[in-house]
Each structure stands twice: as C-alpha cells, then as structure tokens.
C-alpha cells in the first residue's frame, strides 16, 4: 500500500482495484478489472491463474490492456493448503497452463500488449522490491517496459 500511495499521482487518477486480503474478487470482478484497464497489477499469493478461471480467461478479448504485471508466486502455509486443495480437481494439463510462461502466452492471446511476470517462487518482500523498481523506472523515469525488465534482471 505504501508503494501504491507513493506513485499514485504519477500513473492515474482512476486507480481501481482490490487491495488487502479482506475479500477475494469474483470472476466478474476479475473480468471487469481486466477489460476496463490499460494496465493491470497482480500482487498476490501463489499463481495468478489459480485465482481466475482458465476457460474464462482464454475466451476474453482485452486489447485495451497494454501491460499486465504479475507479482505472484509467493507461498505461505495457508496459500499452499488452498492451492493444493484446488489443484486436486484439475488435470495435469490445466495446472501446466497456469505456469508463468503459459500464463503470459494466454494473456498475449487475449490481446494484452506486454506481460511482466515472476518465473519462480519468491517472497512478498522480494516482490515489493520488484514493484518499487518497476514503478520507479516506468513511472518516475519514464523508461520502457523492456528497459525496466532489463534493470530487474
């Protein structure tokens, strides 16, 4: 929340979304957020695709969304239990489609212009540091997504 507050004035006056862990967005809320945005940020636990329905995302058309930033793949005991219980009901192919590269491809196929995503499990603190670097370079310095990702590497 501190990072969002710090950069709020630099990127939009129409910031919309769900912050905190008080509620889990419904599929309709995910759809509204993705279809009505020019940029989308997910900062959360486990795989982004474990929060949205695969069939629903594959059928979407979201060309207005120019950038998706996925700072996911954080694991806690509670999130691991949730994902384990959820994955029991999925095929191996379905779970494979939730991996970072496959998620980026699916988002690209829906019309998203660029995807920045983590590739392996990490911590909330490391993702916070990545978010700070992303916002500083994209918003404060006006660097391109390519230049910013290069800095993150």
Automatic annotation (TrEMBL):
GO biological process: axoneme assembly; cilium movement involved in cell motility
Protein name (database record): CFA46 protein
InterPro entries (UniProt xref): CFAP46 (IPR039586)
Highest taxon of the lineage: Eukaryota
């Amino acid at each position: 929340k501190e990072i969002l507050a710090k950069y709020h004035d630099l990127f939009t006056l129409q910031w919309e979304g769900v912050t905190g862990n008080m509620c889990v967005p419904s599929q309709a809320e995910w759809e509204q957020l993705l279809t009505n945005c020019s940029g989308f940020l997910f900062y959360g636990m486990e795989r982004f695709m474990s929060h949205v329905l695969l069939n629903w995302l594959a059928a979407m058309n979201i060309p207005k969304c120019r950038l998706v930033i996925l700072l996911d793949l954080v694991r806690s005991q509670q999130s691991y239990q949730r994902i384990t219980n959820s994955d029991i009901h999925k095929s191996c192919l379905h779970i494979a489609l939730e991996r970072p590269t496959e998620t980026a491809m699916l988002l690209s196929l829906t019309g998203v212009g660029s995807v920045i995503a983590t590739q392996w499990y990490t911590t909330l603190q490391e993702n916070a540091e990545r978010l700070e670097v992303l916002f500083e370079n994209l918003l404060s310095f006006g660097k391109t997504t390519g230049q910013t990702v290069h800095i993150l590497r």
